[in-house]
UniProtKB/TrEMBL annotation:
Protein name, entry field: RING-type domain-containing protein
Coiled coil: none
GO molecular-function term, one example from the UniProt record: zinc ion binding
Organism: Paramecium primaurelia
Domain RING-type: 33-90
Keywords on record: Metal-binding, Zinc, Zinc-finger
Listed InterPro entries: Znf_RING (IPR001841)
Record flagged with keyword Metal-binding: yes
Length: 400
Protein backbone atom coordinates (compact mmCIF):
# COMPACT_ATOMS: atom_id res chain seq x y z
CA UNK A 1 0.00 0.00 0.00
CA UNK A 2 1.13 3.51 -0.73
CA UNK A 3 0.95 6.60 1.40
CA UNK A 4 -1.74 9.02 0.25
CA UNK A 5 0.92 11.53 -0.90
CA UNK A 6 2.48 8.81 -3.02
CA UNK A 7 -0.89 7.94 -4.52
CA UNK A 8 -1.46 11.55 -5.56
CA UNK A 9 2.02 11.66 -7.07
CA UNK A 10 1.39 8.44 -8.93
CA UNK A 11 -1.87 9.77 -10.38
CA UNK A 12 -0.03 12.88 -11.54
CA UNK A 13 3.13 11.26 -12.83
CA UNK A 14 2.41 7.61 -13.30
CA UNK A 15 4.47 4.52 -12.87
CA UNK A 16 2.74 1.80 -10.87
CA UNK A 17 5.09 0.19 -8.34
CA UNK A 18 5.87 -3.41 -9.22
CA UNK A 19 4.66 -4.35 -5.73
CA UNK A 20 1.09 -3.66 -6.85
CA UNK A 21 1.25 -6.43 -9.41
CA UNK A 22 -1.13 -9.16 -8.47
CA UNK A 23 -0.97 -12.11 -10.75
CA UNK A 24 0.90 -12.16 -13.94
CA UNK A 25 1.67 -14.76 -16.48
CA UNK A 26 3.30 -11.96 -18.45
CA UNK A 27 7.04 -11.30 -18.29
CA UNK A 28 7.00 -8.05 -16.35
CA UNK A 29 10.46 -7.03 -17.59
CA UNK A 30 8.82 -6.01 -20.86
CA UNK A 31 6.41 -3.72 -19.05
CA UNK A 32 8.83 -1.85 -16.86
CA UNK A 33 9.72 1.76 -17.55
CA UNK A 34 13.51 2.12 -17.91
CA UNK A 35 13.34 5.56 -16.28
CA UNK A 36 11.27 5.02 -13.13
CA UNK A 37 11.46 1.20 -13.06
CA UNK A 38 7.73 1.03 -12.34
CA UNK A 39 5.05 -0.62 -14.44
CA UNK A 40 4.43 1.49 -17.53
CA UNK A 41 1.76 4.13 -17.16
CA UNK A 42 0.27 5.51 -20.42
CA UNK A 43 3.21 4.11 -22.36
CA UNK A 44 4.93 5.84 -25.24
CA UNK A 45 7.63 4.09 -27.21
CA UNK A 46 10.72 5.04 -29.17
CA UNK A 47 10.06 4.36 -32.84
CA UNK A 48 13.67 3.65 -33.85
CA UNK A 49 14.17 0.16 -35.17
CA UNK A 50 15.93 -2.29 -32.85
CA UNK A 51 14.97 -0.03 -29.92
CA UNK A 52 11.19 0.23 -29.46
CA UNK A 53 11.69 0.91 -25.75
CA UNK A 54 8.53 1.96 -23.93
CA UNK A 55 8.42 4.63 -21.24
CA UNK A 56 5.72 6.14 -19.05
CA UNK A 57 4.35 9.23 -20.79
CA UNK A 58 5.31 11.43 -17.85
CA UNK A 59 8.81 9.94 -17.57
CA UNK A 60 9.78 10.35 -21.21
CA UNK A 61 8.25 13.81 -21.52
CA UNK A 62 10.06 15.13 -18.49
CA UNK A 63 13.27 13.45 -19.64
CA UNK A 64 13.06 15.14 -23.04
CA UNK A 65 12.11 18.51 -21.52
CA UNK A 66 14.98 18.33 -19.09
CA UNK A 67 17.40 17.61 -21.91
CA UNK A 68 15.94 20.55 -23.79
CA UNK A 69 16.49 22.88 -20.89
CA UNK A 70 20.03 21.63 -20.33
CA UNK A 71 21.08 21.83 -23.92
CA UNK A 72 20.47 25.58 -24.00
CA UNK A 73 23.01 26.02 -21.21
CA UNK A 74 25.51 23.46 -22.32
CA UNK A 75 25.83 24.42 -25.93
CA UNK A 76 29.47 23.56 -26.09
CA UNK A 77 29.22 20.17 -24.55
CA UNK A 78 29.02 17.51 -27.19
CA UNK A 79 26.22 15.60 -25.59
CA UNK A 80 25.83 12.23 -27.20
CA UNK A 81 22.21 12.49 -26.19
CA UNK A 82 21.04 15.78 -27.51
CA UNK A 83 17.71 17.37 -26.70
CA UNK A 84 15.33 14.95 -28.32
CA UNK A 85 17.17 11.66 -28.20
CA UNK A 86 15.90 8.42 -26.77
CA UNK A 87 17.47 7.61 -23.36
CA UNK A 88 17.96 4.02 -24.40
CA UNK A 89 19.25 4.03 -27.97
CA UNK A 90 20.47 7.69 -27.97
CA UNK A 91 18.93 8.26 -31.37
CA UNK A 92 16.28 10.84 -32.20
CA UNK A 93 13.16 10.10 -30.20
CA UNK A 94 10.32 9.36 -32.57
CA UNK A 95 7.13 8.88 -30.63
CA UNK A 96 5.22 5.72 -31.38
CA UNK A 97 2.89 3.23 -29.76
CA UNK A 98 3.48 -0.48 -29.61
CA UNK A 99 0.29 -2.54 -29.74
CA UNK A 100 1.97 -5.58 -28.20
CA UNK A 101 2.83 -3.61 -25.07
CA UNK A 102 -0.80 -2.60 -24.75
CA UNK A 103 -1.95 -6.16 -25.17
CA UNK A 104 0.48 -7.37 -22.53
CA UNK A 105 -0.51 -4.61 -20.14
CA UNK A 106 -4.16 -5.49 -20.61
CA UNK A 107 -3.38 -8.97 -19.31
CA UNK A 108 -2.11 -7.88 -15.93
CA UNK A 109 -4.06 -7.24 -12.78
CA UNK A 110 -3.09 -4.91 -9.99
CA UNK A 111 -3.89 -4.37 -6.37
CA UNK A 112 -5.55 -1.11 -5.50
CA UNK A 113 -3.07 1.36 -4.01
CA UNK A 114 -5.42 2.58 -1.31
CA UNK A 115 -5.10 1.03 2.09
CA UNK A 116 -8.25 -0.76 3.19
CA UNK A 117 -9.22 -1.53 -0.39
CA UNK A 118 -8.80 -5.15 -1.26
CA UNK A 119 -9.87 -5.01 -4.86
CA UNK A 120 -7.84 -6.39 -7.72
CA UNK A 121 -8.27 -4.38 -10.86
CA UNK A 122 -7.40 -4.99 -14.52
CA UNK A 123 -4.75 -2.57 -15.82
CA UNK A 124 -7.15 -0.75 -18.13
CA UNK A 125 -9.51 0.18 -15.31
CA UNK A 126 -6.77 1.01 -12.89
CA UNK A 127 -6.73 4.79 -13.15
CA UNK A 128 -10.48 5.05 -13.06
CA UNK A 129 -10.63 2.82 -10.00
CA UNK A 130 -7.92 4.65 -8.10
CA UNK A 131 -9.49 8.03 -8.73
CA UNK A 132 -12.93 6.93 -7.66
CA UNK A 133 -12.07 4.29 -5.08
CA UNK A 134 -14.11 4.83 -1.94
CA UNK A 135 -10.96 4.25 0.08
CA UNK A 136 -9.18 7.12 -1.62
CA UNK A 137 -8.25 9.88 0.77
CA UNK A 138 -7.83 13.52 -0.05
CA UNK A 139 -6.19 16.28 1.87
CA UNK A 140 -8.36 18.67 3.87
CA UNK A 141 -7.68 22.30 2.87
CA UNK A 142 -7.71 23.21 6.56
CA UNK A 143 -6.04 20.68 8.82
CA UNK A 144 -4.13 19.02 5.94
CA UNK A 145 -5.22 15.59 7.13
CA UNK A 146 -6.11 12.91 4.63
CA UNK A 147 -9.80 12.12 4.77
CA UNK A 148 -11.79 9.57 2.77
CA UNK A 149 -12.87 11.41 -0.35
CA UNK A 150 -16.58 10.82 0.16
CA UNK A 151 -16.31 12.20 3.69
CA UNK A 152 -14.18 15.19 2.77
CA UNK A 153 -17.02 17.61 2.12
CA UNK A 154 -18.61 16.84 5.44
CA UNK A 155 -15.27 17.08 7.20
CA UNK A 156 -14.34 20.40 5.64
CA UNK A 157 -17.70 21.88 6.60
CA UNK A 158 -16.82 21.15 10.23
CA UNK A 159 -13.03 21.47 10.22
CA UNK A 160 -11.93 24.30 12.48
CA UNK A 161 -8.78 24.89 10.43
CA UNK A 162 -10.57 25.56 7.16
CA UNK A 163 -9.63 28.99 5.76
CA UNK A 164 -12.44 31.50 5.80
CA UNK A 165 -12.67 35.18 5.07
CA UNK A 166 -13.83 37.83 7.51
CA UNK A 167 -16.84 39.51 5.91
CA UNK A 168 -15.76 42.93 7.17
CA UNK A 169 -12.01 43.16 6.66
CA UNK A 170 -11.73 40.33 4.10
CA UNK A 171 -8.71 38.85 5.82
CA UNK A 172 -8.42 35.11 5.35
CA UNK A 173 -7.72 32.93 8.38
CA UNK A 174 -8.56 29.51 9.83
CA UNK A 175 -12.19 29.29 10.91
CA UNK A 176 -11.23 28.79 14.58
CA UNK A 177 -9.19 32.00 14.54
CA UNK A 178 -12.09 33.94 13.09
CA UNK A 179 -14.31 32.64 15.84
CA UNK A 180 -11.96 32.98 18.80
CA UNK A 181 -9.18 35.47 18.05
CA UNK A 182 -10.55 37.87 15.45
CA UNK A 183 -12.36 40.42 17.62
CA UNK A 184 -13.59 43.80 16.43
CA UNK A 185 -10.34 45.59 17.38
CA UNK A 186 -8.38 43.14 15.33
CA UNK A 187 -10.79 43.64 12.47
CA UNK A 188 -10.57 47.44 12.65
CA UNK A 189 -6.79 47.23 12.77
CA UNK A 190 -6.86 45.20 9.56
CA UNK A 191 -9.18 47.69 7.92
CA UNK A 192 -6.77 50.48 8.82
CA UNK A 193 -3.87 48.50 7.39
CA UNK A 194 -5.76 48.04 4.14
CA UNK A 195 -6.61 51.73 3.99
CA UNK A 196 -2.98 52.63 4.66
CA UNK A 197 -1.84 50.39 1.87
CA UNK A 198 -4.39 51.90 -0.51
CA UNK A 199 -3.31 55.40 0.45
CA UNK A 200 0.30 54.48 -0.12
CA UNK A 201 -0.52 53.09 -3.55
CA UNK A 202 -2.47 56.19 -4.44
CA UNK A 203 0.37 58.38 -3.32
CA UNK A 204 2.82 56.43 -5.49
CA UNK A 205 0.48 56.84 -8.43
CA UNK A 206 0.14 60.51 -7.69
CA UNK A 207 3.92 60.92 -7.74
CA UNK A 208 4.11 59.09 -11.03
CA UNK A 209 1.41 61.30 -12.52
CA UNK A 210 3.27 64.33 -11.26
CA UNK A 211 6.41 63.20 -13.06
CA UNK A 212 4.43 62.62 -16.22
CA UNK A 213 2.86 66.05 -16.01
CA UNK A 214 6.29 67.64 -15.65
CA UNK A 215 7.61 65.63 -18.53
CA UNK A 216 4.76 66.59 -20.82
CA UNK A 217 4.77 70.20 -19.73
CA UNK A 218 8.40 70.43 -20.71
CA UNK A 219 7.69 68.75 -24.01
CA UNK A 220 4.74 71.00 -24.72
CA UNK A 221 6.79 74.07 -23.94
CA UNK A 222 9.40 72.88 -26.42
CA UNK A 223 6.77 72.11 -29.04
CA UNK A 224 5.18 75.52 -28.63
CA UNK A 225 8.53 77.12 -29.20
CA UNK A 226 8.67 75.11 -32.39
CA UNK A 227 11.62 73.09 -31.19
CA UNK A 228 11.83 70.28 -33.63
CA UNK A 229 14.25 67.51 -34.20
CA UNK A 230 15.93 68.48 -37.38
CA UNK A 231 16.79 65.64 -39.62
CA UNK A 232 19.96 66.08 -41.54
CA UNK A 233 21.22 62.53 -41.60
CA UNK A 234 19.13 61.61 -44.55
CA UNK A 235 18.33 58.08 -45.45
CA UNK A 236 16.48 57.30 -48.60
CA UNK A 237 14.44 54.23 -49.28
CA UNK A 238 12.91 53.25 -52.55
CA UNK A 239 11.85 50.17 -54.40
CA UNK A 240 12.84 51.90 -57.65
CA UNK A 241 16.50 51.57 -56.88
CA UNK A 242 17.54 51.42 -60.49
CA UNK A 243 15.68 54.61 -61.29
CA UNK A 244 17.14 56.89 -58.68
CA UNK A 245 20.58 58.15 -57.92
CA UNK A 246 21.29 59.39 -54.41
CA UNK A 247 24.38 61.36 -53.62
CA UNK A 248 25.06 61.45 -49.95
CA UNK A 249 28.49 63.05 -49.67
CA UNK A 250 27.40 66.26 -47.92
CA UNK A 251 25.14 67.06 -50.81
CA UNK A 252 22.07 64.96 -50.34
CA UNK A 253 20.61 64.86 -53.81
CA UNK A 254 17.96 62.50 -55.07
CA UNK A 255 17.75 62.42 -58.84
CA UNK A 256 15.47 60.43 -61.09
CA UNK A 257 17.84 58.94 -63.64
CA UNK A 258 15.33 56.80 -65.46
CA UNK A 259 11.68 57.62 -65.83
CA UNK A 260 8.98 55.08 -66.34
CA UNK A 261 6.64 55.61 -69.27
CA UNK A 262 3.24 54.07 -68.84
CA UNK A 263 1.85 53.16 -72.27
CA UNK A 264 -1.67 52.59 -70.97
CA UNK A 265 -1.89 55.98 -69.38
CA UNK A 266 0.18 57.62 -72.15
CA UNK A 267 2.22 59.42 -69.50
CA UNK A 268 5.08 58.98 -67.10
CA UNK A 269 4.50 57.20 -63.84
CA UNK A 270 5.58 58.83 -60.64
CA UNK A 271 8.40 57.00 -58.94
CA UNK A 272 8.77 57.58 -55.25
CA UNK A 273 11.27 57.37 -52.46
CA UNK A 274 10.96 57.84 -48.73
CA UNK A 275 12.96 60.05 -46.44
CA UNK A 276 13.98 58.62 -43.08
CA UNK A 277 11.20 56.20 -43.48
CA UNK A 278 8.43 56.35 -40.92
CA UNK A 279 7.28 58.32 -37.94
CA UNK A 280 5.12 57.57 -35.00
CA UNK A 281 2.98 60.30 -33.57
CA UNK A 282 4.97 60.64 -30.38
CA UNK A 283 5.54 64.11 -29.06
CA UNK A 284 8.72 64.70 -30.97
CA UNK A 285 8.37 66.82 -34.01
CA UNK A 286 10.52 66.48 -37.09
CA UNK A 287 11.49 68.79 -39.85
CA UNK A 288 13.58 68.68 -42.95
CA UNK A 289 14.07 70.85 -45.96
CA UNK A 290 14.66 70.29 -49.59
CA UNK A 291 15.40 72.46 -52.56
CA UNK A 292 13.88 71.70 -55.92
CA UNK A 293 16.95 71.39 -58.15
CA UNK A 294 15.25 70.52 -61.37
CA UNK A 295 11.59 70.02 -62.10
CA UNK A 296 10.33 69.35 -65.63
CA UNK A 297 7.51 67.07 -64.66
CA UNK A 298 5.48 67.17 -61.52
CA UNK A 299 6.51 66.39 -57.99
CA UNK A 300 4.27 64.79 -55.44
CA UNK A 301 4.92 65.42 -51.78
CA UNK A 302 3.02 63.00 -49.66
CA UNK A 303 2.50 60.95 -46.59
CA UNK A 304 1.48 57.37 -46.54
CA UNK A 305 0.49 54.83 -43.98
CA UNK A 306 0.50 51.12 -44.65
CA UNK A 307 -1.22 48.43 -42.72
CA UNK A 308 -0.36 45.11 -44.24
CA UNK A 309 -1.43 45.32 -47.84
CA UNK A 310 -3.63 48.35 -47.37
CA UNK A 311 -2.32 51.85 -47.52
CA UNK A 312 -3.67 55.35 -47.42
CA UNK A 313 -1.76 58.15 -49.16
CA UNK A 314 -2.20 61.87 -49.34
CA UNK A 315 -0.21 64.09 -51.66
CA UNK A 316 0.06 67.67 -52.74
CA UNK A 317 1.58 68.52 -56.13
CA UNK A 318 3.02 71.64 -57.77
CA UNK A 319 -0.47 72.66 -58.96
CA UNK A 320 -1.72 72.78 -55.37
CA UNK A 321 -3.90 69.75 -55.90
CA UNK A 322 -4.42 67.70 -52.74
CA UNK A 323 -5.13 64.13 -53.69
CA UNK A 324 -5.82 60.92 -51.93
CA UNK A 325 -5.27 57.31 -52.80
CA UNK A 326 -7.56 54.88 -51.01
CA UNK A 327 -6.60 51.43 -49.83
CA UNK A 328 -5.67 49.21 -52.74
CA UNK A 329 -6.42 51.93 -55.23
CA UNK A 330 -3.79 52.77 -57.81
CA UNK A 331 -5.05 56.24 -58.67
CA UNK A 332 -5.07 59.43 -56.70
CA UNK A 333 -8.35 61.31 -56.52
CA UNK A 334 -8.40 65.03 -56.04
CA UNK A 335 -10.00 66.08 -52.77
CA UNK A 336 -9.39 69.84 -52.85
CA UNK A 337 -7.27 72.52 -54.44
CA UNK A 338 -5.14 74.85 -52.34
CA UNK A 339 -3.09 77.92 -52.95
CA UNK A 340 0.21 76.11 -52.82
CA UNK A 341 2.77 75.72 -55.54
CA UNK A 342 6.48 75.25 -56.06
CA UNK A 343 9.00 75.16 -58.81
CA UNK A 344 12.72 74.96 -59.52
CA UNK A 345 14.90 76.66 -56.94
CA UNK A 346 12.21 76.78 -54.27
CA UNK A 347 13.04 75.61 -50.78
CA UNK A 348 10.36 73.41 -49.28
CA UNK A 349 10.20 72.76 -45.57
CA UNK A 350 8.47 69.66 -44.27
CA UNK A 351 7.35 69.64 -40.63
CA UNK A 352 5.64 66.94 -38.65
CA UNK A 353 4.07 68.47 -35.55
CA UNK A 354 2.49 65.54 -33.75
CA UNK A 355 1.41 67.63 -30.81
CA UNK A 356 -0.76 69.72 -33.08
CA UNK A 357 -1.57 66.69 -35.22
CA UNK A 358 -0.33 68.58 -38.17
CA UNK A 359 1.87 68.01 -41.14
CA UNK A 360 2.93 71.36 -42.51
CA UNK A 361 4.64 71.94 -45.82
CA UNK A 362 6.02 75.41 -46.44
CA UNK A 363 7.41 76.89 -49.60
CA UNK A 364 9.93 79.19 -47.95
CA UNK A 365 10.85 80.91 -51.19
CA UNK A 366 7.29 81.90 -52.06
CA UNK A 367 5.97 82.14 -48.48
CA UNK A 368 3.21 79.63 -49.06
CA UNK A 369 2.05 77.11 -46.49
CA UNK A 370 -0.01 74.03 -46.80
CA UNK A 371 -1.19 71.60 -44.08
CA UNK A 372 -2.59 68.15 -44.29
CA UNK A 373 -5.39 68.42 -41.80
CA UNK A 374 -5.98 66.53 -38.58
CA UNK A 375 -8.56 64.14 -39.97
CA UNK A 376 -6.32 63.13 -42.78
CA UNK A 377 -3.52 62.17 -40.42
CA UNK A 378 -5.89 60.45 -38.02
CA UNK A 379 -7.10 58.34 -40.88
CA UNK A 380 -3.59 56.93 -41.12
CA UNK A 381 -3.31 55.80 -37.52
CA UNK A 382 -0.20 56.20 -35.43
CA UNK A 383 2.47 55.50 -37.98
CA UNK A 384 3.14 57.03 -41.31
CA UNK A 385 6.00 57.95 -43.56
CA UNK A 386 6.66 60.72 -45.97
CA UNK A 387 7.58 60.33 -49.59
CA UNK A 388 8.47 62.24 -52.69
CA UNK A 389 7.52 61.12 -56.16
CA UNK A 390 9.26 62.42 -59.24
CA UNK A 391 8.05 62.05 -62.78
CA UNK A 392 10.67 63.18 -65.30
CA UNK A 393 14.14 61.96 -65.97
CA UNK A 394 16.73 64.33 -64.49
CA UNK A 395 14.33 65.94 -62.02
CA UNK A 396 16.05 66.22 -58.67
CA UNK A 397 15.68 67.35 -55.06
CA UNK A 398 18.45 68.38 -52.76
CA UNK A 399 18.04 67.83 -49.03
CA UNK A 400 19.38 70.64 -46.93
ZN1 LIG B 1 8.27 5.62 -15.83
ZN1 LIG C 1 15.23 4.34 -28.59
ZN1 LIG D 1 -9.63 0.64 -4.35
ZN1 LIG E 1 -9.64 19.37 8.32
ZN1 LIG F 1 -12.24 41.20 10.15
Amino acid sequence: MLQEEEVELMLEQGGIPISQLCNSSVNIDLLQCPICFNILWKPIACGQDRCFSSFCQYCIESWLNQKNAQSTFEEEEETFANESNCPKCKRLFIKTEIPLVKVLLSQIELKCVHSDCTQVIPYEEYENHIVNCKERKKQCRGCQQYILQNKLEEHESQCSQIPVECQKCHKRMPKCDLESKHDKYNCIENLFKIQDQQLENLYTQYLMCDDMVNYYEEKIARMMKGDLIILNEYNFFTIFTANYQFTTDNLYIARLVRNSYNHNKQKNDFLHFYVDYHFTTGLEGYEWKSRVIRLRGNLLIGVCSSQLSNSVDFIVNRLGEVKKKEENDNRYHIIRKVNFTFGEGDVIRFQILPFMQCLRITNETRHLTFCFNRNELQEMGDQYFSFFSLEYQGDALQFL
